Amino acid sequence: MAYNEKLADRTREIISLTHKKIEEKKMFGGLCFMVNGKMCVGVEKERLMVRLDPAKYDEVIDKEGCKPMDFTGKVMKGYVFVDIEALSTEKKLNYWIQLALEYNKVAKASKKKSNDKPQKNEKHNHVIRICINSIM
To answer: Is the model's pTM score more than 0.85?
Structure first.
């Protein structure tokens, strides 16, 4: 089990009360909850990743169990980790999820990877079609 299934169940339950367009993706060794096509919260083994309004970062960073998200070695304002011990009640978990859902309304979705690249043999097949057409 790469992520805490009980925390994932609790998180799913809270989000589904108000949102229907939820997608769950396994990433970063955990389970990420995408709401309206945007990363919202993530569940790991011992903590919750919360995407929140960067303007609220300084306001929440000193709360119980809250730590900067330094997943890449660099602190990312707008994302925090919350230790599982600080999420012991539904009220505490709900606070963090509501912060994420509130920001989700205005957050930008990450850019989708483009499939504009020609497929492996597409260019080769195009040349063959040109050759065949010129012969006919």
So the answer is: no
